[in-house]
Amino acid sequence: MNVEAIRKDFPMFENKSKKGFDLVYFDNAATTFKPNAVIQAVTDYYTKYSVNAHRGDYELSYQVDTLYESVRDTVASFINCDRKEVVFTSGTSLALNQIAYGYAQKILKEGDVVISDEAEHASNYLPWMHACETNKAKLEFIELDEHGCVSIEKFKQAMHDRVKIVSLAHVTNVMGCTIDVKEICKIAHSYGAIVVIDGAQSAPHMKVDMRDLDCDFFAFSAHKLCGPTGSGVLYGKYELLEEMDPLMLGGGSNARYDMCGNLLMKNPPYKFESGTPAIEATLGLKAAIEYITSIGIENIQSYESDLRAYMISEMKKLDNVIIYNEKSDSGIVTFNIKDVFSQDAATYFSDKGISLRSGQHCAKLLMDFLDTPSTLRASLYFYNTKEEVDYFIEVCSQITPETFLDVFF
Ligand code: PMP
Question: Which of 105, 132, 254, 321 could bridge to 137 as Cys pair (CB 3.0-4.6 Å)?
Fold first, then answer.
């Protein structure tokens, strides 16, 4: 992988920080930079065929329909599923809410159980909390192992006959743990439970294959894989999509309705896609997948893994750093500077041109497990470099509680 050439595809790297530093962007778990190909795809929509999709019978309308529907094929081949199983959403959060409101609330009975864990993002916890509350079902938690991960052993201990839905992140957004989806699905299915996978942090970084993993639902966002904001994907096995009710009703999703209250919905995936979608963002998603595929998702994964290993080994040489997820296998590194509040540290990093995340990262339940009110999170992508990591380490080493004395006193 020629990272130097790759970085030239991303205009964001031409910018400098306010103080003139090169941008070191280590907040890729939040969102990623966009390559020219994606920006061009979005611009092309507004300059070449800026009309609605699925609405008109004129030339431009056909052009945009054809392009828009071709994105479904691109996604289907990216995650290995049927095109009819690809629902366009605004992102992971909407996809997970769609499953919780449209499927879970339809099937959960009093006393049924949904399984989650403390390391989940709020978008994969709150919808289930709400669905369980509404249906008088129970939300139960898998105990995390000593690394803050869901192991197969702990998962087996949590499973029982009342479990109807298991909803887990493929890769968690703070601990960066990858679960064994295939094995989890095998076990859950043997109990008759379905498995929902939050793929927000996995699909951009590793090969995800729906036929191989055999999960029942899978959600991811375009903006975390170099695509535009406002676009995402909900994959569902077709028979489950048929069973699930849409979260939204409106134009585009129905076949017919009348004044007596009769309504005939279209078949999936269209019954979930009411209203004018984010057309430009969906076209941008296609360009993003093509871009990622041209680099090779396996190359991306192995490059990130090497860069993370280097970062961890260099961080371990510093005695002012606490690492919370040394053993995880993603590009996410969660840490603190000893005796320094994470937001203060993040402000210092920012002053030196380094963007990383501080706080609770939408995973508030995890802070008790980590026994800290907040953390820093550096998350890598394939355009980050060893030189950036070296600079980051240098800045890390400068931060002590005394760094902030001048500011506060
Ligand atoms: N799940 C995980 C694990 C995430 O990291 C995120 C984004 N931070 C989400 C869900 C929500 O994604 P989005 O904001 O794109 O809907």
Answer: 132
User: Quick one: 171 and 25 in the same domain?
Assistant: no
Catalytic residue among 149, 185, 362, 396: 362
Tokens for 382? Answer: 């394939």
Instruction: Please indicate whether residue 362 is annotated as part of the active site.
Output: yes
Tokens of 223: 């903006």
CA of 123 to the centre of ligand 1 (A): 6
236 in helix, strand or coil?
strand
Task: Give residue-wise pLDDT tens across range 22-54.
Answer: 999 999 999 999 999 999 999 999 999 999 998
For residue 341, the enclosing domain spans: 3-30+296-408
Residue 333 tokens read as: 């590194």
- C-alpha 210 – ligand 1 centre gap (Å): 19
Measured CA to CA, the distance from residue 13 to residue 67 in angstroms comes to: 30
Alpha helices for 204-276 (secondary structure H): 210-213, 238-243
Picking from 294, 326, 355, the residue at the C-terminal end of a domain is 294
Q: How many Cβ atoms are within 10 Å of 112's Cβ, its own excluded? A: 18
pTM for the complete prediction?
Answer: 0.96
Q: Are residues 8 and 55 in the same domain?
A: no
- ipTM reported for the complex, 2 dp: 0.99
Q: Number of folded domains in the chain?
A: 2
Give DSSP secondary structure letters for 176-238: -PBP-HHHHHHHHHHTT-EEEEE-TTTTTTS---HHHH--SEEEEEGGGGT--TT-EEEEE-H
Regarding whether 137 and 20 lie in a shared domain, the answer is: no
Half-sphere CA count of 337, side-chain side, radius 13 A: 25
Ligand 1 atom 12 nearest Cα: 92
Residue to probe by mutation, ligand 1, list 97, 121, 224, 225, most atoms within 8 Å of CB: 121
